[in-house]
């Protein structure tokens, strides 16, 4: 069968998407209602929205020929996922048989999409939009169950979601990408590169994530004093992480040069790692230590672990989500265990125990890996429109790409390898 | 007369702009005063600011050679228009002979510029900055009258301005572009195309509009519970619209490929269409139905109607504002009529009747068409610096464009020094 | 010694950065504590964050080969500076031996970094990251002293920091760039140019600065009514400034064409100039006059003064910070003196006198020039990794730049039809 046939998702995608939207609308009709609420959280909600749609979307635009998909499929996953997430999380919090929507529920709906977007980063360039819709449904469903387990049953602390979102999303995505492993991509694909301007586009994502991360970590804090503390801790954690990332990036390069990949990603690890303990009185200097360690772990992960995972374990992690979300998320989880063990005064709550925190981390990790493996198995079904190895990391498989550029690509068949590169600029 | 002479607006533009600014400052001196007010609406104001300056500006950067004008003239229209709008809307709401400015008035000043920016989308690439200043003055003046008619005299509901801004701005622009019709642009202009990166720039506009649309639709809602409801309805309407747009975009393409133009524009139709009824208890699932229908209408408009309007009716709509603002705005207006007819309990107000809603829609449409035709007639005056057909959609007529690129275009048939420049793109 | 050796900052940069981070964390451990506070200022804080990281960062991306440094080193300076600024400003405001951090302190920490970012604009492309770290430490330290002098000792009015941030940052940077003067850059460097897309990236910075400037000028106003007034004045000042800038930009060009450099920069002068008096009842029309004059001064500065400073005084100001921050800041300071002299009713405070305002302006200017000269002297030390003249304005000295582009540069010596396409990018 030709590759053109394989990836034509005209009916598969459109029918699946429309069907899902109809189902969601019916479920909303049955279950969802407005809830009267105040607007206190509205600025936090809007900050989170910017992170989800601009932050995650642009962070992934670094690939030279995959910008439409990065920002476009990110938007699709988020817009679809927030509806599905409203239902999945809502089912665990029904009030008299109804899901009552207010700003807090919408923030959480946005949060639930973050897991799918993190996993999207792991498989970026290697999956079809049909596969991403299915992944979004499965991941958000499983996420909602794990989140309920962690916050309601284990009653663990995880206000900035280091475990429930970052660890979960990263390891879910890694399990998927492992199951979907393609030997043909073992060697670096010629499209899996950035250009100067695609890297600058990616910095738009990085910076908006950085700026609004304090809102992400504090939006779910119920009490205002604690919420401000979450903002303060996240702010200083990120700042320390950024300085450390720059330092290590230079140190690890023989010529002392900075790596834009590290600046785009590892500078954010401080926001992930402080998540679990963000609202606790751990002291700003402790927040900065956590941020610094997160930066170190993340840089080392990108530098040593990612190539190793790819070559030894067949885990190809396109955006390096393991280093940005996975490892710093685990650090966040461990921090929670340690703080619960040594600092009893930080929270009066009896439920804040090392055991429960460890259970929460284990549950997030385990359920993510199992859920990701299961999802990967389903996504492996042959009729889901996956691109051939050769066409990976290339928008033109699923998108109409500007005419001039294609014309150009055709005309330019016989001047050197650089023409393809120019065509994608 | 040479085209260079025609488009040199050195004295025309600068004298007109300075004169207008002097007049505005004098009028501010006579009429405008501060009003004590609270900061509740400040975050909504800032969200609207982002939509006006970044959202509208970047949405139009998709043209490969018209980015400076898109984002620059957008800024000019907005900065000029918000001053003029403060006066025009203010004259209808004087308090003891004074226009009292607070955050609400500034939000409405921003809103008034949105009409001119929507119309700018219809004529994009075909008008001079002088023409755009004149259009802005006339359109905002007429808009303020229609808005007064709709909200004060007819007392119609239109909280998110589906009719007063979107229908008005779109049909005003379409009337202008019809009157300014150029047979020479009948065939697709070689500059009327995007490049890969210009399309990604445009997505910055799309996403910020998408993210902050709930603020746009709720900023003018007086009561807080209703304001949150407007946020909820807009959020879910946009989400449903986005999924449907992706589905139809794939369905309408033979190879099942997504169109970036549709993703840039039709995904926003849900925000427009929910505008009129955003604050009413129509139920979230109804908001999603409205969003879905808006997506369908907008995609079909881009796919079938825009080429037809251009070829049969001589209406060349550069950005497709008819599909993003016009048709979804009419849908919003019709929704208002239907809701007024069938759901009496949603608003106790006696004034919320199908008749008044229909009158508001008719008035917005009719006044826009008449006002646009009149404005188009004035803009047709030969000395306003319009570019020749050949130079349409090209920044270099009204902007200094980076030297290297021009040099490059001329010199570049035979190597070397330009390569460094290309490498940095 | 080869240039490769000179600019390899592998150990210099990383050890300095890590050492500074450790010192800062220790100082935080000793001196910093949380302060209970309310979230009223949180939206203002987030707006300022966007200005610092996105606004300043992207504004400087106009150089064709210096985008990574503009946005990356901007991030480094800001992340490092906000920690250092917390300490330096905090030492002047200790409560029982502790620096108590809340949203207001974080806003001020962000503000303190703005001075270093403005100075970065003056030396952009000519300094190493090591030099920038040292500059940041020195400048923020001196800034905190001058700010204490101006606001606490002189008790001058400067709510939007026209003097303490804009005048200070600009003249500090100019003094540094004068001391670091390189005769080899006398003639325009071939890298000191923009490309079409780099200019559009810069507009992202401009627009976010423009949009959120009202938050910058009002964040430090203690009373809410005054805060809204600062927002109103800044909004209209910027709007008037923008229209005037467009008018003059066209007027000063023989062909009447707009200059994107002026639109990127001079449109913001209105925000700078209104800073000192932003919260006073000066009347909106006066704000618009100040904005208009700021636009005129800034445009004339770019057009006539910058080339003169470079050729006659050996002051090479890469971004033209003198025109965006220096001159409009002085205008702001003078406005403060005039308002204090003629309008006694605007502030009851006895301390608001022309003399004190003049002393504040003189102090900001004098301390900046002296501090900048001193800093420049230190930065001149030969082992700080400064690039050779030839390698100025080029990311590849301090950054790994995408491989393909370098390859491309080598291969692309002899083809044709693709060049036009590239030229339009």
Automatic annotation (TrEMBL), chains A, B, C:
Which GO molecular-function terms appear in the entry? ammonium channel activity
Q: Which residues cross the membrane?
A: 13-32, 44-63, 75-94, 130-149, 161-180, 200-219, 231-252, 285-305, 325-342
SUPFAM superfamilies registered for this protein in UniProt: Ammonium transporter
Q: Which reaction does it catalyse?
A: methylamine(out) = methylamine(in); CO2(out) = CO2(in); NH4(+)(in) = NH4(+)(out)
**Keyword Zinc-finger carried by entry:** no
Q: How does it sit in the membrane?
A: Multi-pass membrane protein
Per the record, what is one GO cellular component? plasma membrane
Primary localization: membrane
Q: Which UniProt keywords apply?
A: Ammonia transport, Glycoprotein, Membrane, Transmembrane, Transmembrane helix, Transport
The UniProt entry's GO biological process terms, in alphabetical order, are: ammonium homeostasis
Q: Does the keyword Transmembrane helix apply?
A: yes
* Domain Ammonium transporter AmtB-like, first and last residues per copy: 22-382
List, alphabetically, the PANTHER family matched.
AMMONIUM TRANSPORTER, AMMONIUM TRANSPORTER RH TYPE A
Q: What does the sequence similarity comment in the record state about its family?
A: Belongs to the ammonium transporter (TC 2.A.49) family. Rh subfamily.
User: How does this polypeptide assemble, per the annotation?
Assistant: Homodimer. Heterotrimer; a RHCE monomer interacts with a RHAG homodimer. Component of the ankyrin-1 complex in the erythrocyte, composed of ANK1, RHCE, RHAG, SLC4A1, EPB42, GYPA, GYPB and AQP1. Interacts with GYPB (via the N-terminal); this interaction bridges the (RHAG)2(RHCE) heterotrimer with the SLC4A1 Band 3 I dimer complexed with GYPA.
Name by which UniProt lists this protein: Ammonium transporter Rh type A
């Amino acid at each position: 069968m030709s590759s053109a046939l394989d990836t034509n998702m005209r009916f598969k995608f459109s029918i699946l998407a429309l069907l899902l939207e109809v189902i969601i609308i019916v479920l909303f009709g049955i279950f969802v209602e407005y809830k009267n609420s105040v607007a206190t959280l509205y600025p936090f909600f809007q900050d989170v929205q910017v992170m989800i749609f601009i932050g995650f979307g642009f962070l992934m635009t670094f690939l030279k020929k995959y910008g439409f998909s990065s920002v476009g499929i990110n938007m699709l996953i988020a817009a679809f996922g927030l509806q599905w997430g409203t239902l999945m999380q809502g089912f665990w919090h029904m009030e008299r048989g109804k899901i009552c929507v207010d700003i807090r529920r919408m923030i959480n709906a946005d949060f639930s999409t973050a897991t799918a977007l993190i996993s999207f980063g792991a498989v970026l360039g290697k999956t079809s939009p049909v596969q991403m819709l299915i992944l979004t449904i499965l991941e958000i469903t499983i996420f909602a169950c794990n989140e309920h387990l962690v916050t309601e049953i284990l009653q663990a602390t995880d206000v900035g979601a280091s475990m429930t979102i970052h660890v979960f999303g990263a390891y879910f995505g890694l399990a998927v990408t492992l199951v979907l492993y393609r030997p043909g991509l073992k060697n670096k694909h010629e499209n899996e590169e950035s250009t100067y301007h695609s890297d600058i586009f990616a910095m738009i994502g990085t910076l908006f994530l950085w700026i609004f991360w304090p809102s992400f970590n504090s939006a779910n804090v119920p009490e205002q004093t604690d919420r401000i503390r979450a903002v303060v801790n996240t702010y200083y954690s990120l700042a320390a992480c950024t300085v450390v990332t720059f330092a290590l990036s230079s140190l690890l390069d023989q010529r002392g040069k900075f790596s834009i990949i590290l600046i785009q990603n590892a500078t954010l690890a401080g926001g992930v790692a402080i998540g679990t303990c963000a609202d606790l009185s751990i002291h700003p200097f402790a927040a900065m230590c956590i941020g610094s360690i997160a930066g170190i772990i993340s840089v080392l992960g990108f530098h040593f672990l990612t190539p190793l995972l790819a070559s030894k374990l067949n885990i190809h992690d396109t955006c390096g989500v393991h280093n940005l979300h996975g490892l710093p998320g685990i650090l966040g989880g461990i921090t929670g265990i340690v703080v619960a063990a040594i600092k009893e005064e930080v929270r009066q709550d009896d439920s804040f125990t090392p055991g429960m925190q460890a259970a929460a981390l284990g549950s997030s990790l385990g359920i993510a890996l199992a859920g990701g493996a299961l999802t990967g198995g389903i996504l492996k079904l042959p009729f889901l429109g996956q691109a051939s190895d050769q066409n990976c990391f290339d928008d033109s498989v699923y998108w109409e790409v500007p005419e001039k550029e294609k014309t150009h690509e055709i005309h330019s068949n016989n001047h050197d390898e650089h023409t393809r590169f120019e065509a994608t600029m």
